[in-house]
Amino acid sequence: MIGNRVPRRKTLPGAGPLGRQCRTEMEKGVMERYREHLPLTDKTPIFTLGEGDTPLVESRVIAQMVGCGGLYFKLEGCNPTGSFKDRGMVVAVAKAIEAGGTSIACASTGNTSASAAAYGAYCGLPTTILVPKGNVASGKLAQAIAYGARLVVIDGNFDSALEMVRALTDKHPVVLVNSVNPDRLQGQKTAAFEIIEDLGDTPDYLFIPVGNAGNITAYWMGFTEAATSGLASSRPRMMGFQAEGAAPIVRGKRVDAPETVASAIRVGNPANWQPAVRARDESGGTIDMVSDDEIMDAYTLLARKEGVFCEPSSAASVAGLIKAAKDGLDLESATVVCIITGTGLKDPDSARRLDDVSMEEHPPELAALERALELA
Ligand code: F0G
């Protein structure tokens, strides 16, 4: 066992270092639960907004479609700010405080900024976020505003915003909390531990969207550590997917004007490019790309056939799985996990743009409703 996981909802005896009793692993948070696997010291403040311990949900329809023996979705949208970023952010912010930091900053396609803003607010740290103009989903902007971050809109793309915030934090005493901060990846690797705990061992394949390439790097680190310490018998093949219009790793060169409906992974020059390539190669996996149509088909399928409402970028993992199966990947006896990185509520406009939605208006009379529903 990695993170002293106990059956959910069991009351834990005694108060932990959080200073109170925790009923669930989620209440413990990532730092308390995986303390021994994280770079924490006696001086690291331990706190949580309830990140981690996200559900692994078994697929019913897509598993059959792709002929997969066991397909699971890891619902990272169930984290406190609605994306996987919280796992890493809690560690990065704690380490920033430990080091005497008094403010944090990041560039973001939206989710990192929402997470930084939340943990910054919880810890009383002023938070500055740089986002690309016109390409951040409305729910994510709403979060940044609600959490009270200083929101700077850059008339450029994510890559230029990241360059700027790196220069800013190099020059001034502000802690950078993008995934170039190693503490972020340390926290994010805990999702790999949870998957191993839930399945009893490592899956055969892990399908995951790739943007700035921090998450695929973090999962590989987690799976590698678990295998090295004997907690898992092997490591999965890492199957990363970029969007066709923002696929620098697949094309082998940076993309100056990345374009995709999946705004969270609209990244042309990933900061963790090399570690992601290493994860791909060491695992015998792939980093491939999927079209916007494939992403939106997977997005719709997930919502309508599996009850999983995610943001378009998250659906890139499932779009990748469908594509790999079409290309002949035999998954019959394989255990596969797709990472669903963020909730669909982040990006309501993408749902509204689905063109087959029927919305009708009727007077507030039962008879009219019955006629419309062809029940009368
Ligand atoms: N899925 C979602 C929902 C994301 O927000 C991101 C990245 C990714 C996948 C890709 O993860 O960058 O580690 O390869 N979002 C970053 C952000 C870029 O600023 O929120 P990655």
CATH top level class name of the largest domain: Alpha Beta
Strand content: 5-15%
Q: What structural class do you assign from the helix and strand content?
A: alpha/beta
Low-confidence stretches at least 5 residues in length (pLDDT < 50)? 6-15
What is the average of the pLDDT values? Answer: 94
**CA-CA gap between termini:** 58 Å
Shape: globular
Number of helices: 15
What is the chain-wise order of helices and strands?
HEHEHEHEHEHEHHEHEHHEHHEHH
Sheet with the most strands, sense and barrel status: 6 strands, mixed
Main sheet strand line-up: 1-2-10-7-8-9
Overall CATH architecture of the largest domain: 3-Layer(aba) Sandwich
- The helix content is 40-55%
How would you describe this structure to a colleague?
The protein is α/β, with parallel strands linked by helices. It has two domains: 56-82 and 184-352, Rossmann fold (3-Layer(aba) Sandwich); 83-181, 3-Layer(aba) Sandwich (Rossmann fold). The protein contains 15 helices and ten strands. A six-stranded mixed sheet has the order 1-2-10-7-8-9, sandwiched between helices. Strands 5-4-3-6 form a four-stranded parallel sheet. Strand 4 (127-132), helix 5 and strand 5 (150-154) form a beta-alpha-beta unit. Helix 3 packs across helix 4, helix 3 crosses helix 7 and helix 7 crosses helix 9 (214-228). The chain starts with 24 loop residues before the first helix and ends with a helix. 52% of the residues are buried. The structure holds ligand F0G.
